[in-house]
Write a structure and sequence with these properties.
- This protein is an alpha/beta fold and 375 residues long.
- The protein has one domain: Ribonuclease Z/Hydroxyacylglutathione hydrolase-like (Metallo-beta-lactamase, Chain A, 4-Layer Sandwich), CATH 3.60.15.10.
- Helix content is 45%, strand content 15%.
- It contains 11 helices and 12 strands.
- Strands 1-2-3-4-5-6-7 form a 7-stranded mixed sheet.
- Helix 7 links the parallel strand 11 and strand 12.
- The longest helix has 28 residues.
- The termini are far apart.
- The structure holds zinc ion.
- Zinc ion binds next to loops.
Length: 375
């Protein structure tokens, strides 16, 4: 009786401790796993808005080996994915597919590759070029030189001053988010120092089919969208699609993107008639509502930017004139953090990208410009 009571008290304490634990007690790279179909597992970091953002990972177990789609952007994430694969199957990892060149999808591959050195790294031809060229190298170099720590210092200053570095006031509801941003930056900067670039060893341009025994994996490039080399994975038998960052919820990322062409990528994704779509980040999609919303928003950006450029408006005027009020609330639901990041991650970079496309300026230049000579 006594020990039963002790057990009850112990479990009550455990429940109370759990309830009292703040949300940020969840580790930065802790992943939640679910099985979408037999042998198809997806990992998601809870809270997709937490910074740094962490991509969703899909593990597909075939008859003889394993394929991983977007194995991770951080070494700690790759280590967790590797541990999970080892707990699921003794089969070797044969393929590691990279959806696109952005580091949050591939700079955590190294631990998996070290464990399975024969694994092929698969990606679009452009993805390989961008990882080896200026885009991938430049960002890693600046982050390893302390870029993460410096950004955190800027955010800390904004918190102290009560206004953001773009001059806008900080809503009190935003404070916990940015306080956690500053705390997480220590671990983030340490991860960046451990990263290395592992470009694709097997590339494709439009499509590549991989047979994992009886299981068919289709990799497709539907044209420029989030990047010039987006690869999506289709499991036709299971009607599962992994979209990389052609779909990101709740707020899509539009840096260096191709808004008009991206709309047709979304149309192709809808055309696969998926049962489950795994976005690059954020919650799984089981219908087309969110993809339709993204298509509507990107169409609005592309058409308004093109019209403004045709009228000869200068860039500053174009930024002011684009009106996304018809869609913004459906992305943000009035949440102050989502409102701020709707501007940071989507509206401003989408407008800038569409402007570049309209003016023929390369969004993802593979080479560095020569340094400007001062007389
Ligand atoms: Zn991403």
């Amino acid at each position: 009786m006594l020990h039963l009571r002790a057990a009850f008290v112990a479990s009550l304490i455990a429940v109370l401790l759990l309830a009292a634990a703040p949300a940020h007690a969840v580790g930065l790279f802790d992943l939640e796993w679910s099985e979408l179909a037999p042998g198809v597992h997806v990992a998601q970091r809870p809270d997709p808005m937490r910074y740094p953002v962490v991509c969703n990972t899909v593990v597909v177990i075939g008859d003889d080996g394993v394929l991983v789609f977007d194995a991770g952007g951080f070494p700690s994430q790759g280590e967790r994915v590797l541990a999970k694969i080892k707990s699921l199957t003794p089969k070797p990892v044969q393929y590691i597919v990279i959806s696109h060149w952005h580091g949050d999808h591939n700079r955590g591959i190294a631990p998996i590759l070290d464990a399975f050195p024969k694994a092929q790294i698969v990606g679009h031809t452009f993805t390989r070029a961008a990882m080896l060229g200026a885009p991938g190298q430049r960002i890693l170099k600046s982050e390893q030189a302390g870029g993460v720590r410096d950004t955190a210092a800027e955010v800390k200053k904004s918190l102290d001053e009560g206004k953001f570095f773009d001059g806008t006031p900080l809503d009190p509801a935003e404070k916990p988010f940015f306080e956690r941003f500053v705390t997480d930056a220590v671990e983030h900067q340490a991860e960046v120092m451990r990263m290395r670039i592992t470009p694709p060893t097997l590339t494709f341009d439009d499509k590549l089919d991989i047979k994992l025994g009886k299981r068919l994996v289709q990799l497709r490039h539907f044209g420029p969208g989030n990047t010039k080399g987006d690869a999506v994975m289709i499991l036709p038998a299971e009607r599962i699609v992994a979209a990389g960052d052609t779909v990101v919820a709740p707020i899509p990322y539009a840096f260096g993107s191709y808004p008009a062409s991206w709309v047709s990528v979304l149309r192709e994704l809808n055309g696969t008639r998926y049962k489950t779509l795994v976005p690059g980040h954020g919650p799984l999609q089981t219908d087309t509502t969110f993809l339709d919303l993204m298509g509507e928003a990107l169409t609005l950006v592309a058409s308004q930017v093109n019209a403004a450029v045709a009228q000869g408006k200068p860039a500053r005027e174009v930024f002011k004139s684009v009106d996304l009020s018809r869609v913004e609330q459906r992305f943000t639901k009035g949440d102050p953090i989502l409102q701020r990041f709707f501007g940071f991650y989507f509206r401003d970079p989408a407008i800038e990208s569409a402007l570049n496309v309209a003016k023929g300026i390369e969004n993802e230049k593979l080479t560095e410009d020569p340094p400007v000579k001062t007389p």
